[in-house]
Amino acid sequence: MASLTSYASAAAEVTHLSQQDAAEIDEQLMGALGFSVDQLMELAGLSVAAAVAEVYKLGEYTRVLIICGPGNNGGDGLVAARHLYHFGYRPSVCYPKRTPKPLYSSLVTQLESLAIPFVPVEDLPGNLSEEFNIIIDAMFGFSFHGTPRPPFDDLIHRLVSLSVIGNSAKRPAIVSVDIPSGWHVEEGNANGEGLKPDMLVSLTAPKLCARKFTGPHHFLGGRFVPPPILSKYGLNLPPYPGTSMCVRIGKAPSVDISSLRENYISPELLEKQVMPDPFDQFIRWFDEAVTAGLREPNAMALTTANKEGKPSSRMVLLKGVDKQGFVWYTNYGSQKAHDLSENPNAALLLYWNEMNRQVRVEGSVQKVPEEESEKYFHSRPRGSQLGAIASKQSTVIAGREVLQQAYKELEQKYSDGSMVPKPDYWGGYRLTPKLFEFWQGQKSRLHDRLQYSPREVDGSTVWHIERLCP
Ligand SMILES: Cc1cc2nc3c(=O)[nH]c(=O)nc-3n(C[C@H](O)[C@H](O)[C@H](O)COP(=O)(O)O)c2cc1C
């Protein structure tokens, strides 16, 4: 069976900190580097919540129990509870040894204002698996040493008994904040009888014990480490992607593609509700995709075939749609253009994942009139105009620098700001549809599929709507 596996780059080289270095770094952050403990706690808790949300998707995982210890690790847990609430989860907090400092009591007040329940240890359900999908262990951090005292010894024991059930859907996922509670900060799960969390969110940098973590999800959080700390401790940490507050360390677990299955829940797509004209129906759905804020709702797969019928697909951007057809722009020397010159039949596919919708459109393709391409070319940003000239799309080049050189020369050539002429080998295509299908995902694979095909009725063409089996 096919499997998808991705690897975080340079996983093996990530630095692991000793307990002493970790303590020193904290001191420097909160000393010379100007951070307050509240700030670091806020960012740490946000990272934990972000990592949890990245792995344990809402819908399947909703109810979260956060067990907070008396120190900073517990504070990180309280902050994570607040963020998880705002992300849409239903957190409950078990905070048996409250710290009477303003930072902690303010966090409690914030959680109380969100009506997040605080569950006393004695009121925790006997079977945690029935009540919670995720348990966050925020009991002890890297500064802890010794043996956990009541009630934490028993709480850790309960999590240990849960974690031996194995990686089954029948028990909550266990997430540890920075250090799995009860572990030695450097030696880890020394006697092998401690907690085995499914996820570890290391903060600032992984501590030495994280080398012994064998669960499927190791993340780094605490996106605040400034360059003086990185250089002083020779830290090699993975870069955070985009605006993310967490980054995966090491290998992601492999995914069995055959097990990826969504149970779609959507409004029904009924014959009596759809527009009689498929162009109107398309525009209605397209507008809804735009309103829903989907990223590039106009991205579509274009499939062409050459004269031997050999197919090929690629993404293009829909740049116009009206009753004449669907328009995109490209290079007339590209492979798709070559296919279309031999065989004008093509298919378009738009997929709006978040709305459980796909639209298929099939028809024949012609170039758009030159003036239309001209007008569109000049509406594009200048960089895209130059890029279109520089790229002899679908041809082989010796290296990226060839393209960069061509682009640079064009920049110089048009540095006076004069109009960039559209090259003859660039322009639009329009697909005139002969078939549409609107697909709406539904529960238990009972999806809606409505197909529109043209029929001649009394000398004029009307669109005939049929329902297809999913
Ligand atoms: C989201 C997305 C949008 C794209 N839009 C276009 C486009 O509008 N026009 C285009 O020529 N290539 C576009 N591309 C690049 C094409 O997928 C493809 O690489 C290129 O057109 C060459 O294809 P060909 O060699 O089959 O002709 C897009 C790629 C992606 C991923």
TrEMBL record:
Return the EC number.
Answer: 5.1.99.6
The pathway entry for this protein reads as:
Cofactor metabolism; pyridoxal 5'-phosphate salvage; pyridoxal 5'-phosphate from pyridoxine 5'-phosphate: step 1/1; Cofactor metabolism; pyridoxal 5'-phosphate salvage; pyridoxal 5'-phosphate from pyridoxamine 5'-phosphate: step 1/1
Note whether Ion transport occurs among the keywords.
no
Instruction: Kindly list the positions annotated as binding (6S)-NADPHX.
Output: N72, N73, G74, G75, D76, G141, F142, S143, F144, H145, G146, T147, D178
Q: Which PROSITE patterns match?
A: PYRIDOX_OXIDASE, YJEF_N
Q: Which residues bind K(+)?
A: N73, D137, S181
Q: What class of enzyme is it?
A: isomerase
Q: Which cofactor does it need?
A: FMN; K(+)
Q: Which GO terms describe its molecular function?
A: FMN binding; metal ion binding; NAD(P)HX epimerase activity; pyridoxamine phosphate oxidase activity
> Could you tell me the keywords of this UniProt record?
Flavoprotein, FMN, Isomerase, Metal-binding, NAD, Nucleotide-binding, Oxidoreductase, Potassium, Pyridoxine biosynthesis
Q: Domain YjeF N-terminal spans what residues?
A: 22-237
What reactions does this protein catalyze? (6R)-NADHX = (6S)-NADHX; (6R)-NADPHX = (6S)-NADPHX
Is NAD a UniProt keyword of this protein? yes
- Alphabetical GO biological process terms: pyridoxine biosynthetic process
Matches recorded under InterPro entries: Pyridox_Oxase, Pyridox_Oxase_CS, Pyridox_Oxase_N, Pyridoxamine_oxidase_dimer_C, YjeF_N_dom
Per the entry, the cofactor note is: Binds 1 potassium ion per subunit.
Subunit note: Homodimer.
Give the protein's function.
Answer: Catalyzes the epimerization of the S- and R-forms of NAD(P)HX, a damaged form of NAD(P)H that is a result of enzymatic or heat-dependent hydration. This is a prerequisite for the S-specific NAD(P)H-hydrate dehydratase to allow the repair of both epimers of NAD(P)HX.
- To which protein family does this belong? Belongs to the NnrE/AIBP family.
Q: What is this protein called?
A: NAD(P)H-hydrate epimerase
Organism equals: Zizania palustris (Northern wild rice)
